[in-house]
Specification:
alpha/beta, 7-stranded mixed beta sheet, 41% helix, elongated, Release factor glutamine methyltransferase, N5-glutamine_MTase, EC 2.1.1.297
């Protein structure tokens, strides 16, 4: 089978489940992973014959895509903030909106000496926030916590691959009574999707991404935010800031909670889709 024939078969197997543009993107991503060929190479070498193993790898990927498994889990990798990251079923797939949160932190850190910065990422998952900050704020001291030992294995591997030093620790933030030191920046992208919102979510998210990293109860959807804010109240340095990625429907409710805990200078920002997605706050002086 040639590359051209494979492409035709690949499209026929997935059209109807995905838009044509997305199928094309899948084919490009898998070709780079399996064949080590860029998009232009696929055109120039369209008559190249594929080995049996290569054909089988594509067939296996198609079967998984037909069940709506995310392409990032199939390849085992993705990109975030122009950096490579390994991902698997124990880690959320990093979103573009979270890149905006990282950029916000970098923007407010421009006037500070990275050598004096202490940063904590709570609920690090793949490590995408902590690693991106460490990469762009060298030599800041960056620490990261997560409840999942399996997620931390991936995060540790990503830190090594991206050549940054991160202090990782397995902790359940809802059971933490005190953080180890004071920080200039505490950031978290905690679970924030309410159970009631599941019906609006895509199958590839619901069936494959780790539920514990996504969902919270309808009864107390801000449980992680309140726990983290209470800890941050005692562990932010003077002039320090607390950042969260947030549920678009709960921004005002969260703002009130943060004020009640003792934070001010509360700023809510929208993401690239125009939805309330990030919040920054500081302590009363």
């Amino acid at each position: 089978m040639t590359i051209a024939e494979l492409r035709q078969e690949f499209y026929a197997s997935l059209l109807g489940r995905y838009p044509s543009e997305e199928v094309g993107s899948f084919f490009t991503i898998l070709s780079e992973k399996i064949l080590n060929l860029k998009r232009i190479d696929l055109v120039l070498r369209s008559n190249n014959e594929l080995s049996e193993n290569q054909q089988q790898e594509f067939k296996n990927a198609v079967k998984r895509l037909q069940k709506f498994e995310p392409i990032q889990y199939i390849t085992g990798e993705t990109e975030f903030f122009s950096l490579p990251f390994k991902v698997n079923k124990h880690t959320l797939i990093p979103r573009p909106e979270t890149e905006e949160l990282v950029q916000w932190i970098l923007d407010i850190s421009q006037t500070k000496d990275p050598a004096n910065l202490d940063i904590l990422d709570i609920g690090t998952g793949s490590g995408c926030i902590a690693i991106s900050l460490a990469k762009n704020l060298t030599p800041a001291a960056v620490s990261a916590l997560d409840i999942s030992s399996e997620a931390l294995k991936i995060a540790h591997r990503n830190a090594i691959n991206n050549k940054v030093a991160i202090t990782f620790e397995e902790r359940d933030i809802l059971k933490v009574s005190k953080l180890p030191k004071l920080y200039d920046i505490i950031v978290s992208n905690p679970p924030y999707v309410r159970e009631m919102e599941k019906k609006a979510m895509h199958k590839n998210v619901l069936e494959y991404e780790p539920a514990a990293a996504l969902f919270v109860s309808n009864v107390d959807p801000l449980v992680f935010y309140k726990a983290i804010a209470r800890l941050a109240k005692h562990n932010l340095k003077p002039g320090g800031a607390l950042f969260f990625e947030i549920n678009e429907y709960l921004s005002e409710t969260l703002s009130v909670e943060l004020k009640n805990i003792g934070f001010n200078a509360i700023e809510i920002r929208k993401d690239l889709f125009g939805k309330d997605r990030m919040i920054k706050c500081a302590l009363h002086e």
